User: Fold this.
Amino acid sequence: YAALRVLNHVLGSGDLDSLLMDEIRVKRGLAYSADTRLQNDRIGSFLIGRFATRNGSMKQALGVVREVLSRTAQNGPTQAQFENAR
Assistant:
């Protein structure tokens, strides 16, 4: 669970330095905010994300989310991202 909390912070803490905020808002201006949160139950933990964008930008924004998740799954966070989240 501790590792998932760090990953949640790296991906979508809501801060401008999180991966989703950086890629969706800062670099592309597709949404005002993008964030993730953890939801726990007796069976497991879920990472839930959200953002709001214009209808015409939805496909591009979802593509960015997929790319960020794929890249993070393959490479993990950088050492600097890990230290910042820790």
Residues 37 and 48 are 5 Å apart (CA to CA). Residues 58-75 form the longest helix (18 residues).
